[in-house]
Amino acid sequence: MRKLSAILFLTIIFILGIAISDIHNVYAKVFAKVNGTVKSEDGNPIEGAKVIFVFEDGTTFELTTDKKGRWRKSDLRPGQWTIGFTADGFQPKNITVNLSALKDNPSIDIKLLPIPESPLKLGDDLYKQKKYQEALEEYKRVYSEHPELHLALEKIGLCYYRLDDLEKAIEHFKEMLDREPQSRETLINLSSIYFHKGELEEGMKHFRQLDEESLTDPNTFYNIGILLFKNGQIDLAADYLTKCIALDPGYAKGYHQLALVYLNKGNIEEAKKNFQRVIELAPESEDATLARKLLEQIK
Q1: CATH assignment at residue 265
Q2: Number of domains composing the chain
Q3: Angle at which helices 132-145 and 151-162 pack, to 10 degrees?
Q4: C-beta neighbour count of 230 within 10 angstroms
Q5: Would 281 be classed as within a structural domain?
Q6: Can you tell me the distance from the alpha carbon of 77 to that of 94, in angstroms, rounded to the nearest whole number?
Q7: pTM score
Q8: Which residues contact 63 (CB under 8 A, 6 or more apart)?
Q9: Which of 13, 25, 179, 284 is most buried, most CB within 10 Å of its CB?
Q10: Identity of the highest mean pLDDT range in 79-83, 117-121, 211-215
């Protein structure tokens, strides 16, 4: 009996030893903590800057700076971390640090440099103000000084387009494509000009060079659909307007134009359906007012 009691006692002691060892392991875990600031080159704090932590195994944390540009992070595993700092209007910066859990880590104080102003900014500002002739001269000046800045060619082409000099616009868009054959914006602009001129085959030749799946702006398909519609390409117009509203099911103008296309095709039921969507989406709009009138007429 005494022998059995001794065995039970030793067993209990062994189990308790394991439990105590496990508890010790849990409480033995220690974490690193670190803090710092993000400021501009002249020392002003940057509020809302992103601080992104990436551990060597891929673990990621993200936080943002406060009004004084400060940030703090605790409960980090000790070891090597890559920390990235980003803020609107500033060049991003990455650093790699080894964080310790056994001693205080030094403050990480970062200064971000501003993103250099584009030489095209003045021309862009003039273009936004619809001062197309002045913008044109500015873009030409920049391109003469920076011939490696191919984007200026597209900007020049856009100015000529706005000034209704389509041949000059085409010339500069094509020059841009010679240098950057896959420029998406240039292909869109060039195809739009040809549609505007009624040269549909030439327009589609350039538009088909685009990867349509990569186009996420419904306005692109809407504008192409409108130009095709104006040039009597009813089926193609319906196709592109359908793609427009597939990208943005709330695009009321897309439904309105698609309804008009179906009306021209003689598909009254589809026209009604799309006019009704316009009324549902934008009941106070001019398109909705016209849709109601047309629905009354085609009942």
Answers
A1: 1.25.40.10
A2: 3
A3: 160
A4: 12
A5: yes
A6: 19
A7: 0.59
A8: 50, 51, 71, 73
A9: 179
A10: 79-83
